[in-house]
Inverse folding.
């Protein structure tokens, strides 16, 4: 499991994180990454 917390991130970065992870709260992303995405 991966948890990422971002503050003052540009919209492009937030959008990219939302492609792979679930945004459970503003700026808090959680999820499981596949081997391909981790590399």
């Amino acid at each position: 499991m991966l948890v990422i917390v971002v503050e003052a991130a540009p919209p492009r970065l937030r959008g990219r994180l939302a492609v792979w992870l679930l945004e459970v709260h503003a700026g808090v992303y959680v999820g499981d990454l596949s081997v391909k995405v981790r590399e």
Observations:
- The CA atoms of residues 4 and 29 lie 5 Å apart.
- Helices lie at 11-20, 35-38.
